[in-house]
Amino acid sequence: MTNKVIIELDQVSKRFDDSVIVNNISLKIYENEFITLLGPSGCGKTTTLRMIGGFETPSSGNIIIEGKVFNDLPPYARPINTVFQSYALFPNLNVEDNVAFGLNNRTYTYLVNFYGGEDQLKSEIISENPELPITKKAIKKKINEHIKKSVSEALSLVSLKNYEKRRITQMSGGQQQRVALARAIINKPHILLLDEPLAALDLKLRQNMQYELKEMQRKLGITFLFVTHDQEEAMTMSDRIVVMKDGIIQQLGTPRKIYNEPVNRYVATFIGETNILPGTYVKKDLVNFLGVNFDCVGYTFDNNETVDVVIRPEDWDVVEVNQAKLEGIVTSVIFKGVHNELEVDVKGINLMVNTYENYNVGQPIGLKVDPYEIHLMKVDSDEQNL
Amino acid sequence: MSKTFNKLSRPYLIWLIVLALLPVGVMFGLAFVKTEGVSFDTFYFSLESFELITEKSTITAFINSLFYALVTTVLCAVIGYFVAYRLFKSNLNNKLLILTVLILPMWSNLLLRTEALGNIMEHNNILTDILSNIGINFSIGIKGSPLAVIIGMVFTYLPFMILPIYTALEKIPYALEEAALDLGLTNIRKFWKVIFPLSLKGLTSGSIMVFLPTLSGFAIPQILGKGNIVLIGNIIEESFRNMNYNFGSLIAIIILVFILGSLLIINKMDKEGETLI
């Protein structure tokens, strides 16, 4: 991350009446990254987004955007656009007018600067028609041409070419979603906020949109700040994920890091299925759980300290009983298409195991796990600390 | 199922035919003949009523009606929009209660209400009496003036304007306002570009609901105008009272055409039934 910081939240809190929604969050968001706020509903992720967007003012702390404190600036003065969960398209306008809405309602001076300044526009007019006198009217006309071009560019970016004259009410949910996107990106914001924009779409469409959004972010080179409660969505798209709970950041990192090395029980269970087992750190690179010693790598604890052991279901190796470290009985099998999801009873404890092979309920199997697949967490780790 | 409903609707159908459709038919017939009242002994075909229409008094009444209806509608629209918007934007918990209070006068008798209003528009009434007791000697005597009629009409029909505008405003999702701000609009521009266009439906419904009764009503101008101001409704009433059923019918039919036209517009504009008609 050698990139420039574009948004900085400095000890930002938000209280409504007596309840604290966002609790002393500090966060740096870099230029041109796709960052996701992930957490269950009520964790403060949407409120954080709304504070950055300017729809809420923080109770304390500073929101610094491009080096300036933005706490009390209204939304229209921010280099930010939002894609709303409900899309919030204007039902009285057609697609074209919706997309052009942001530009159509800017001042003349703003638009002149937006399209490269007065000289640029003048030279464009001259190169097209040298005889034409350069009046304000001519420049305005040129600007309108530019807006029209921007609209069709934005629409083709979201694959909605030739939908200009369509009414909003005649569009499907997925198409409305795209219009909302086009309406935001046409303004060339430095930061795009997305508030669970895919929540209302069906699974297939949602997956497509995830790839398209990621692709779009790469192409446009602007910072995307995405809010979702869907961990899979967050995994697919994000450069970095911010896991939140009760208004506090639990963990901040790349999807891989958060998945493989969760800092606490909460993150481990929230991001995907997992087995969390009580264990003891015997000595360096040796951990004991379920009564057996396992090799592990890369963790330093006190000798004989109790730890939480995290093993993802797909990290177990199912082997012959005589070669196994652990023995168990299969108690349930669910076919998931690519793999089978087993529940295995080992010494009275249920483990989740994913495997490609087929096993039957009641069958005894052996389990093994590679040292680097074992992730250890401090047991009494204060969940509020990073 | 539908057969039972057919049977159940029969009394209403008969009521509609006997008390609404038939009289309109008779009125339509009466417009083209000359009779003594509704006795048909001496009736003969005549277009005399049509000649009366072009008389100066009738034309003046028509113009008066249109003028007063228009002024009332515009005043109601402006005041009503402010009230509805203020209520819509307020943080009150019980907006419905406020709304009920606003439309409460609608449920009292029109004549009684108008007479009461007329009373306080004259010198020496209960209000000036009370005020003089606490040392304020102040009274206005505007009864009989156009202002009195307009005040009376606005007072009576304002609730019909507030309600549909408020309903239309309530239907605008808050996210749209946020989206407008997000896309660079200031609060004032947001109002004109988003809120106002989306509440136009309510404004139209309200305007029609104010315009129609003020166009054809006769009680308010009669009481508050003390007979100085003659609207088309007064002409109709007068002709029926003077047994000139033919002329009365003709004007009534013309007004009916106006009303039906407006109802068509309402139908086009108001698909969700915001209007109280």
Task: Describe the structure concisely.
Chain A has 386 residues and is an alpha+beta fold. Chain A has helices at 45-53, 95-104, 108-114, 117-128, 136-157, 173-185, 203-220, 231-237, 255-260, 265-270; strands spanning 5-16, 19-30, 34-38, 60-65, 68-69, 80-83, 191-195, 223-228, 240-245, 248-253, 275-283, 286-289, 292-295, 305-311, 316-319, 326-335, 340-346, 349-355, 364-369, 375-378.
What can you tell me about this protein's structure?
By secondary structure, chain A is of the alpha+beta class. Chain A has 2 domains: 253 residues, Rossmann fold; 106 residues, Beta Barrel (OB fold (Dihydrolipoamide Acetyltransferase, E2P)). Chain A contains 10 helices and 20 strands. In chain A, a hairpin with a 2-residue loop joins β11 and β12. The radius of gyration of chain A is 26 Å and the shape is elongated. In chain A, 36% of the residues are buried. Chain B is mainly α. Chain B has a single domain, classed as MetI-like (MetI-like fold, Orthogonal Bundle), CATH 1.10.3720.10. In chain B, strands 1-2 form a two-stranded antiparallel sheet. Chain B is globular. The relative contact order of chain B is 0.13. The mean pLDDT of chain B is 85. Chains A and B meet through β6 of A and α9 and α10 of B.
